[in-house]
Amino acid sequence: LGYFLSGNIITNHRLAERSANSIIVPGAIASLISLGQLIGILIRSGGHIETSELNVLLARADGMAVLLIASAIFAVGMIRRPSLPARAIYVLSAVISIIGLILSGEVFAVIALIIGSFAYLIIKTNKLIGLLLPAFLLIPLAFLLLPNSLLNLIFTYSPSIGTAEELFTLWKNSLEVFFYNIFVGIGIGSESFAEEMAALGTVGYPDSSNLFIELGLEAGVFAFLCFCMILITRLRHRSSRYLYIRNSQIEALSISSGVCLFCLLAFGMVNYIWSDSSAYYLFWCIFGIGSATLRVAKRDYDDQVLYYEETSALDSSVIDIEIG
Predict the structure, then answer these.
(1) In terms of CB atoms within 10 Å, which end of the chain has fewer, N or C?
(2) Is the pLDDT of residue 322 over 50?
């Protein structure tokens, strides 16, 4: 629903900007609330704060990291505004959203945001885009090659992951169940997952902490392949329409939506980002915004070509009259 609404309602760059603002504003407000709560805790504790006290921050709510990633990226993309006050507002929104993301404790969400800067360079230059972007999604997994003692230290600040050993065991058991139910899956919902994991001696986890594993586990291999094909198709469309986007007013938003999706997928390598329904809806809304910007950019390009062709035809007719 989010994809079809945002993908079909957005017909020009103004509507696209308003859609981006509808993501930026809630993220900035949530981050401000989190920052205010943190300041309140610091005042009450005399400047000393325990890690457990951070759990009360709003940014720790399920799915909030997804919103904050999107808010920060779209705010950065909107900085290139002609109005100086508007630029200042977007800069402030981006900074506040990043602070909120750090306060969320989702270490891998911050890492995904950093990796997103490399995705921006690739999307901007369009060099080897089909090869490098999927490979960059594996970078969060590379961090799991660190020693378990260091990983456990990182996981102490992450509200969604216990220890490295628990995560690896969870993935191992999830893949085992996936291959056993490869065609039909186990069904959607944390209850089905908990039941299957309990049979393997793993309890206390609502999902597999991996978007791709969870999708195949719940809906089967065909749903997993369909999702991958959708991503590949989007990547191909993004590459083929690069010329249109580069010369369009909607360039910044188109790039922002692509970078945002990339960051969410990178974060999804170590977190089931669709566990919260609002985060699921937001993901497909961003996907729809990206599709709409591609269509708008293509239409703007076609309008420009048509205008220049008509202008050239008029100029030619004038020359013919003068010669006659």
Answers:
(1) C
(2) no
Q: What is the DSSP letter of 138?
A: T
Using an 8 Å Cβ cutoff, are 286 and 257 in contact? yes
CA angle 224, 70, 284 (to 5 degrees): 35
Q: Does the CA dihedral 116-119-120-123 come out positive or negative?
A: negative
Residue 231 scores a pLDDT above 60: yes
Query: What's residue 97's pLDDT?
Result: 92
Cα–Cα distance, 161 to 191 (Å, whole number):
19
- Rounded to 5 degrees, φ, ψ at 203 are -130, 160
Neighbouring CB atoms inside 10 A of 121's CB total 12
Q: In the predicted model, what is the mean pLDDT of residues 160-187?
A: 81
* Residue predicted with more confidence, 183 or 49: 183
Helix (H) or strand (E) holding 316: helix 277-323
Annotate 62-75 with DSSP letters as a single string.
TTHHHHHHHHHHHH
The backbone torsions φ and ψ at residue 289, rounded to the nearest 5 degrees and listed phi first, read -60, -45
Residues of the chain above pLDDT 70, percent: 69
Q: Answer whether 137's CB lies under 8 Å from 288's CB.
A: no
Average pLDDT of the chain?
Answer: 76
- For helices 129-136 and 251-268, what crossing angle results, to 10°? 40
List all residues 6 or more positions away from 223 whose beta carbon is below 8 Å from its beta carbon: 185, 215, 216
Per-residue pLDDT at 304:
60
Q: What does pTM read for this prediction?
A: 0.83
The count of C-alpha atoms lying within 13 angstroms of the C-alpha of 314, restricted to the half-sphere facing its C-beta, is 6
Cα separation, 199 vs 184, in Å, equals 19
Q: Would you state the structure tokens that stand for residue 222, as one six-digit string?
A: 């065909």
Closest by alpha carbon to 292, among 260, 322, 253, 264? 253
Please say whether the beta carbons of 63 and 276 come within 8 A. Answer: yes
Residue predicted with more confidence, 233 or 51: 233
Q: What is the pLDDT of residue 127?
A: 53
- Answer whether 244's CB lies under 8 Å from 300's CB: yes
Q: How far apart are the first and last CA of the chain?
A: 61
